[in-house]
Amino acid sequence: MPAKVNGLKIERKFTESGQDPFKKLNWTKRDVEIRNFDGSVAFSMKGVNLPDNYSQVAANVLSQKYLRKAGVPKKLKKVREKGVPIWLQKSVPDHKAMEDLPESEKFGEEVDGRQTFRRLAGTWTYWGWKHGYFAKEEDARAYYDEMCFMLASQRASPNSPQWFNTGLNWAYGIEGPAQGHYFVNPETKELERSVNAYEHPQPHACFIQSVSDDLVNEGGIMDLWTREARLFKFGSGTGSNFSRIRGEGEPLSGGGMSSGLMSFLRIGDRAAGAIKSGGTTRRAAKMVCLDMDHPDIEAFVNWKMTEEEKVAALVAGSQHLQNHGNEILAAIQAYDDDGDRFNQSKNKPLAIAINAAMKAYVPENLIARVLELGEQGYSHIEIDTYDTSWEGEAYSTVSGQNSNNSVRVSNDFMHSVIDDKDWNLYWRTELDVAKKEGRDPEPCKTLSANDLWDTIARAAWSCADPGLQYDTTINEWHTCSPDGPINGSNPCSEYMFLDDTACNLASLNLVKYYDSETTKFNTDEYIHSIRLWTVALEISVLMAQFPSVEIAQRSYDYRTLGLGYANIGSLLMRMGIPYDDNRASAICGALTSMMGGISYATSAEISSVKGPFPRYEANKDNMLRVMRNHRRASYNVPDEEYEGLTVKPRGIDSNYCPEYLLNEARQCWDLAVELGEKYGFRNAQSTVIAPTGTIGIVMDCDTTGIEPDFALVKFKTLAGGGMLRIINQSVPVALDRLGYDNKQSKEIVDYIIGSGTFENSPEINAESLKKKGLTPGIIESLESQISNFTGINHLVTVSSVGKDFCTSKLRVQESQADDWSFDLLGHLGFTKQQIDSANDYIFGRLTIEGAPHIKESDLAVFDCANKCGQYGTRSIDWGAHINIMAAAQPFISGAISKTINMPHESTIDDIKQAYMDSWRGMIKANALYRDSSKLSQPLMSGTVLKVNLEEEEEVAEGLMSTEKAVEVLADSLPIPEAEPLARKIVTRYIAQRRKLPDKRRSYIQKAKIGGHNVYLHTGEYEDGTLGEIFIDMHKEGAAFKALTNAFAIAVSLGLQHGVPLKEFVDAFVFTRFEPNGPVIGNERIKMSTSILDYIFRDLAVNYLDRNDLAHVKPEDLKPDILRSEGEAETEQKLNSGLNPAGSSTDGHEIQLTLEEVEPTKADSSTLQLDLGGSSVASASFSSDSLESSAVEDAGKFGFEGDPCPECGQFTLVSNGSCLKCVSCGSTTGCS
User: Fold this and answer.
1) Residue from 507, 846, 474, 928 nearest 696 by CA
2) CA 747, CA 760: separation in Å to the nearest integer?
3) Res. 684: pLDDT tops 70
4) Average pLDDT, integer, range 1063-1087
5) Residue from 289, 492, 806, 864 carrying the catalytic annotation
6) Which residues pair with 157 in a beta bridge?
7) Which of 324, 375, 492, 1221 could form a disulfide with 1226 if both were Cys (CB 3.0 to 4.6 A apart)?
8) pLDDT tens digits, one per residue of 905-925
9) 494 is an active site residue
10) H or E stretch at 852
11) C-alpha to C-alpha distance for 704 and 701, rounded to whole angstroms
């Protein structure tokens, strides 16, 4: 249709009329590649044409996720359409032009970013032009060019569904069968069913759906699971409030009792889990909300915590069952008399084992089953054991893990907590009846508000759920409250509106509007961008299709939008302002105020062209009240001036806000209110702050949404795979802003990220490596690869040095060369301290704390959400997260998706205080995460679980020692050779503890079993007998490590209470479980059937002279004619803890200094392998060892410690109330 006289006028800020919008950017073709955790290629694409400003990470994610992979015609032709300029007309495949092309070459994929950017910008412009949004063609052309440039220059990005779906029909003529979607025809205003999957795209990411108290009918419980499934399948997220569902035990109209809400939530949770297991995200994007007066509120609050306790019970209990079952079978097998083997009165060890199992609550029928297996000749049973891995069987067995859970708290409840009052719960049917009869409802249960408050806080402290949504605050800022209350939110909690509505999101990259030279924020370009992106989101509602009739109709009626921003944490750092600072809050408030004000002003401007949203008149007075309150917050008026608010907002503090930002923030709302009163508003909501997961990576944002940075050092993906460590790009800019010169800045950055060279490195450098036998060529090769690795142990490996060279010149055994976790530097004789010192110099300390030149007063500028690296001690206080949210909330119509990070040491009272402060700060929703509160997260760095055996009480005075008791009992027994029987009786029944000396002899034995490092540390009595053992498997998971620690403590207590070592040896040698196989590093033992088999073989050989349990006899270790005396002497020194020069080393690990080895070239055919999986080594390696090492390194860089389910990298970080992967861009949210 022709342009309208009163259409939108579009000015240019970034482009010039008649010029290619991409001309200002430099474009380069590059190869992109994303690798899986095991090094295999997950995605690759050659020759992708993108602007130089795109980092490799952004290029990878854009190419993998957003470039269309199929159906793009090689030749296109325009489709003539009346009133549409030729440059804006739709395109379809030109089949005639493609006649001569092979069938496989007629259609392909997008290989140029310009194709994708034009696809999006062109579609928005096309729909806007057709429906009269632009005044003239030149305005439409300006809009198209400006949007193309903003996408290409990473100034802004829409949510993922826009990238996936928008423009496929307009740009390429792609069509497909309808998928059951609906839309309202903007011309006829009638609801229609889509006849094509792509003509009306599906650009919305966030949905809120209603659910009625009905089992099988439309709109009911089972129907909701179907509606959710449709959204999950296509990558969107949804939330629902389940408060209408009757509680457990509530009377049914037809008689009987309701099974309750929780039974249905478990079904929905399992359904969501099943769908996500076939997709690419770790969990379904789903929100479950419940009102505080629901009868099942206590069960709901404790749901996730209780289910996590079940996981812990499965992990511990499965091992417990197996241990007790095998103890019973061992007692049966050890008894000599076959006839009385099952007679408990005679076979006392069997009776003891059964009794111990029963005392440990092992089910009696399981004990009976074990006895029956014993009768059938079984000597061992295997019971499935579990771990706390998020993707493991234990978690998949329980419910409540596939959603974010929130409770809706009203001001009444919060005041009841403060005043220590009671709180009533109500049957759902009673609420309906009381409302109909015009009376107050009768409660079904009354409990203390503070007790319920404590329950919520304890659950959140334990497992990070439930979150809180402040119902009164949400609805006091609700623009359409006459049409009903807001009951729920999307999964990430930023979109809050009426049920059965949807929201499409977009975010601006704030850093792109900051000029580090002038130290000013470009408000003109920022305001211009807000206006144009508000238009894009409004047009997206116009062109969209929706998954249900209700959502299609209500999206047309209310036209809710979700414009937000990202990277404010980076912006503040570049400004030299700490995240926890009054200036930060004021600037955040001002920028958010500008965004909210201009977005609503643009909505009013569009309303002057197209009219207000259909339900505006019914909600006009209330919406204008909300607009006036937004404006008042920008002026920070006294509390009494606000209309209809019980909790007052925190306005912009003019004492801390730059004047030019403050003035713009106020003028924007002046304009919004003025235009709104004159024209109304086109959209009931316009702004939210989303977590910007994948799109944040595409825009190269250091920080997402309103979050601070999570670490100062980041991983960047290399073009050929692998990872590159780089400093947060805001750090050098911030140092310059704070007045540090170039030399000082470089030294600070080098301290954080490392020098990146062996030159001047302490302990490990080119000279020391040469003395150890490495050739200059190998050292030069290692030097060139430093930037590709995350640590020196990942750099200097058998793979990078060359397998042939290591085995032939460095005496690395073949089995060691094939072990990915083999410590080559340790093998060469470098100590842990030397390795750490060199690592800090070359690869950095990952924190700015302690850096040269840095002032103590400047450290706060660089604080992150987590402690940085293993040396970092600082992090942003959780109160700062609340302050920044409170500064932004008064100026956005939706809410904020943000995680409030709390340290591991936070208490339940801290949780309550954070919830209370959030309410008082007028925040609409709160999601807390206490570090390590999830079972699946490894314990935070430095957290150690210890039991000091030496602190046990000494044997009480007057009690007989074990040896004396054995002597007395043996003398009294009327049988020959009574001492063994006496010892058995004493040690099993009446022994008392024998205290170890404060100073004791010991040895440490390191070995590898199936690729797993095992450290055995012993402690001896003065007479040389064994008194204690310690077992360390430091690279294993927390659960397995805890079990081995506990086992070692139990054995030590047994030894100190007189249990002979022989008893342990007899019980545990030949036990069989994984890991098992060849033993590397022990000179006497070369094979084991399990970790315990190996440990007790070693103890038996060293303390009981049980050479029959060794694989190498002592005489085999003596010098022979095949070895010179010098070699024998060298080996003797190595085995006694000395290096060949005679100086001490760290125990039994064989280390060798090679100074006389003839140089040779490294094996260049062996590929490298680093933490990120940059390439696949030719050697085989243990996946468990690799994963545990990756988890350990991931924690140093501020990552969560879980693998990304899509690419396998250990690079998941908090992203609003969800998680995102900074390697591949996968997100667990819906943005």
Assistant:
1) 507
2) 14
3) yes
4) 85
5) 492
6) 507
7) 1221
8) 899 999 999 999 999 999 999
9) yes
10) none
11) 6
Report whether 695 contacts 1222 (CB < 8 A): no
Pick the catalytic residue from 308, 476, 494, 1083. Answer: 494
Q: Please give the single-letter amino acid code of residue 1182.
A: S
**Calpha distance 264→588 (Å, rounded):** 42
**Residue whose C-alpha is closest to residue 6's, from 608, 681, 650, 739:** 608
Q: How many CB atoms lie within 10 A of CB 284?
A: 26
Would you give the distance in Å from CA 165 to the centre of its chain? 27
Q: Give, in order, the Cα–Cα distances in Å from 552 to each of 228, 240, 362, 543, 560.
A: 16, 17, 56, 11, 12
Which one-letter amino acid corresponds to residue 1098?
A: D
Tokens for 725?
A: 């460590």
pLDDT one-digit tens code per residue, 308-322:
889 889 988 988 898
Residue 445 burial by CB count (10 A; 0-12/13-18/19+): exposed, middle or buried?
middle
From residue 688, give the alpha-carbon distance in Å to each of 82, 508, 560, 649, 956: 38, 12, 10, 17, 68
Torsion of CA 769, 772, 778, 782, to 10 degrees: -40
Q: What is the pTM of this model?
A: 0.77
- pLDDT above 70 (res 4): no
Q: How far apart are CA 591 and CA 594, in angstroms?
A: 5
CA distance 1109 to 1082: 13
Q: Which residues are CB-neighbours of 930 under 8 A, at least 6 positions away?
A: 460, 461, 464, 902, 903, 904, 906, 911
DSSP string, 166-223: TTHHHHH-------S-EEE-TTT--EEE-SSTTTS-----EEE----S-SSSTTSHHH
Consecutive H or E run containing 719: none
Buried b (16+ CB within 10 A) or exposed e, 379-393: eeeebebbbbbbebe
Q: How many residues does the structure list for the chain?
A: 1231
Single out the catalytic residue among 302, 326, 490, 926: 490
Residue partners of 277: CB distance under 8 A and separation at least 6:
none
- Collect all residues with Cβ–Cβ distance below 8 Å to 193 and sequence separation of at least 6: 178, 181, 182
